[in-house]
Amino acid sequence: MARLAELIQTLETAYPPRLAESWDSVGLVCGDPGEDVRRVLFAVDVTEEVVEEAVSWGAQALVAHHPLLLRGVDSVAADRPKGALIHRLVRVGCALFTAHTNADSADPGVSDALAAALGLTVIGPIDPKPVPAVDKWSIQVPGGHAEAVLAALFAAGAGGSGAYEEVAWRVAGTGQFRPRGGANPAIGTVGELTRVSEDRIEVVAAPRDRGAILAALRAAHPYEEPAYHVTERAQLPGNLGLGRVGILAEPLTLREFTARAAAALPETTWGVRSAGDPGRVLRRVAVCGGAGDSLLDTVTRLGVDAYLTADLRHHPVDEHLRRSGPALIDAAHWATEFPWCAQAADVVRVGLPELETRVSRVRTDPWTVGCGG
């Protein structure tokens, strides 16, 4: 058994809230972080059927991809559809947590799960987010004082790197200085050249913490004027961001890859359809779980052979193909995001093995009837 707060921490480590788009709503929707959790249900959507599945199974937490309360609301009254779901969850003690665009841009995230289902080896995001700016602090410390200075720097926020903390590097060397008149040296004498065995320590920190780190450095360092240098790393593209570009183990035609997608993704009335020459040979394929037509121009510039996403519209597809862009594969929105549920369940299973997890068995794709062919 674990606390809801531990579940939240595990999920937010995998899907950091800072990756969410500014318009999005992610995180805990309802529930007490201090309550115990034994069972966690994962789903793409929060519907009445999914909530009833969570209640019937005895889940203490429901983790969803799509936010139930995305836009501002002024009431969650029980006589309103969304309010009724919130009341149902609260009454039985089942928390609701959402990971949306933060899960889209995480590494691994929604599109990684989609790529894996389609047999693609991911080589990077379609639209990478810049790696956040970070400072590197290089500081000279006399022998025997490095641990105290490092402790102060860590307490001020330095030394974090991904899933690690208290990260530092050090090397021994010799420092020298000649105090001038008016100085009050902790070591050495005014007017005389002094050589000291020192450690050079290096730590990284967020630029927003510069003031706190400098104050901590000055307070903990034995020297009147500590020697330090701060550099800021360039913002380079990283592994975070929307969509993924992948490589097929063996080339497939567009017709063959479309059939593979239809077999790999959960069945829906919408199905899987493609636009382009059915015999076109595909090697590099881009994918984006959910609605990805905003990335059409980007995948064209990347030179991929095909792009699979959801919710593609008639005119953008027609114009895209007229510009000789990559072939397009359109699948149901829910189907392209469903593989993420198993990924998120695995995150919790590894991080909190005492919890019981389940992927919802409810198909929340809204389309129910398909005709023609």
From TrEMBL:
GO terms for molecular function: metal ion binding. The keyword NADP does not apply. InterPro entries: DUF34/NIF3 (IPR002678), DUF34/NIF3_bac (IPR017221), DUF34/NIF3_sf (IPR036069), N-reg_PII/ATP_PRibTrfase_C (IPR015867). Signal peptide: none annotated. Keywords: Metal-binding. One of its GO terms (cellular component) is cytoplasm. The keyword Coiled coil does not apply. A divalent metal cation binds at residues 65-66, 104, 333, 337. Belongs to the GTP cyclohydrolase I type 2/NIF3 family. Homohexamer. This is GTP cyclohydrolase 1 type 2 homolog. It comes from Nocardia speluncae.
